[in-house]
Amino acid sequence: MKVSIITEGFENTGHGHITRCLSLYQAFAEHNIFPTIYVNGDKHAQSLLVNCRYEIMDWLTHPTKLTTEINNSDILIIDSYLAGKEYYSHFWKLAGNSLYIDDNLRIEYPEGIILNGTINSENFPYKKTGNEFLLGAKYIPIRKEFWNVPVRKINKEVSSILITFGGQDIKNLTPGILQSLNDNYPLVRKSVVIGSGFKNKDKIENLKNDNVEFHYSPDANQMRNLMLSSDFAVTAAGQTLYELAVTGTPTTAIAVADNQMNNIREWKKQGFLLNVILHNDRFYMRKLNDELKKLESISIRKKLSKIGKDNVDGQGSRRVVNYLIEKVCDMNGFYFRYAIESDSEIVYGLSNDPAVRQNSINTQPIGWNEHQQWFTKKVTQEDYRFYLVFDKKDGFIGQIRFELSDSSAVTSISISSEYRGKGLSKKIIKCACSKIFAEKHSLKNIIAFIRPENNVSINSFISSGFILTGDEIINGHIFMKYILERS
Q: Is 148-311's fold the same as 333-485's?
């Protein structure tokens, strides 16, 4: 399955888009599907994209390269505030299924799935068009470190406060808030997150004392632990609010951008926030201090913690990805993904199935060590495409492989015993051949060698457009040669 994710993230705008796209990447990876994330961003964006496939490119100014890269995607995901409707209208035509991440009904999206994980977005006034919708906090994409959060302990007395304004703190709020907390809560530990894009580090570091701890660009696991160990948090009203909610962290939020207005207002309606505070309100610090005073109450903190966890369970990324996989499967009854080294055992079991061995070029049982050497080579070989086939519940249907040359490819297919006789071979062959032709433009034909007595395979390949062109002797046995020409 080819999954392409398009997004952006800059030092001066924040990295919330990248964070939630990364969470979808992680949910795909649970299925051993590894998307490519195309980021219009800067060097600060790269620090978030460790252990994933990504490419930094200015796709907004120069979309031609991106068009080539994402063409023939099975799933396309776009998360952008910069791309206009014309980009969406162009990109969605290049994929089988398209999903658009929205926060505020930004544009009229083309055909596809609209995802808005904002709290209460199921009540937003979306036009009932031909689009599909995934709305509400149950679908909010959250990083995998927040998918299974331990139970929080609510302390009677406040002993720790977290200050986090993302990777940039674009409105430079951290120094003033830390100074106020030092004045009002001198004996309380303050954990201050300082992102890679902060312009005011010196000013913040000058406020250091024995009860102030600085955490420089913490990773997701460190952020989760900071939230769980803090009695309440002060934050911006963006993506971090949902991570605070799922950890049950009582929170005061300040909206620092227009796109955070829906978030802060809806969380106020839901009861997780006590007030709507805007960064450009000249009385914002007074409102913040009033709210923090209320959060000293253990009963209020217990209430807010429960509201947060009741509304966000952390499973949004998994729900979205499962929905997308089901969409792909609804078309054919299966999906493809590339084989990886950890698949060795299931492929070994299928390869040694008696029916598979009987119809293979080599009919002898395969030893484990021999298989391991062969499999490790094939899944990394440049001129080899090794697809595994699964149903929407990740049931292993079978495999189809292509050995490529400049203008030709040799294919073979094996189906697991429980999926035989269901008419899947024909569909798998047709879909896989289409993928290979689309990927490799120099390919003129695809060849299949089939034993004369294997009527099931012969019928499947003929039904898929292959034509008998003769026979060949391989390992002393006659095989029928079938060829599918590029149409």
A: no
Strand order in the sheet with 54-56: 54-56, 36-41, 3-9, 73-79, 95-101, 113-116, 132-135
End-to-end CA gap in the chain: 23
Read off the pLDDT of each residue in 16-30 and give the average, rounded to a whole number.
Answer: 94
Q: How far apart are CA 249 and CA 324, in angstroms?
A: 31
Please give the helix or strand (H or E) that residue 474 lies within, else none: strand 467-474
- State pTM to two decimals: 0.91
Q: According to the model, what pLDDT value does residue 326 have?
A: 96
User: Where do we find the tokens 């269901």?
Assistant: 422
Domain ranges of the chain: 3-145+316-322, 148-311, 333-485
How would you classify residue 336: left for phi > 0, otherwise alpha for psi between -120 and 50, otherwise beta?
Answer: beta
CATH class of 333-485: alpha beta
Give the residue among 281, 279, 284, 255 at the shortest CA–CA distance from 267: 255
- 10 Å CB burial of residue 54 (0-12, 13-18, 19+) is buried
pLDDT at 11 over 80: no
CB 60 within 8 A of CB 28: no
The DSSP result for 257-282, as a single string, is SGGGHHHHHHHHHHTSSS--EETT-T
* Tokens (6 digits) for 168: 């940039």
Provide the pLDDT confidence category of residue 213 given band limits of 50, 70 and 90.
very high
Q: How confident is the model at residue 43 (pLDDT cuts 50, 70, 90)?
A: confident
Q: Which tokens is 390 given?
A: 């699964």
pLDDT above 80: residue 44 = no
CATH placement of domain 148-311: 3.40.50.2000
Q: Could you read off the pLDDT of 295-319 as tens digits, one per residue?
A: 999 999 999 999 999 999 999 999 9
User: 14 pLDDT exceeds 80?
Assistant: no
What 3-state class would DSSP assign to 126?
coil
Q: Angle CA(466)–CA(468)–CA(474) in degrees, nearest 5?
A: 110
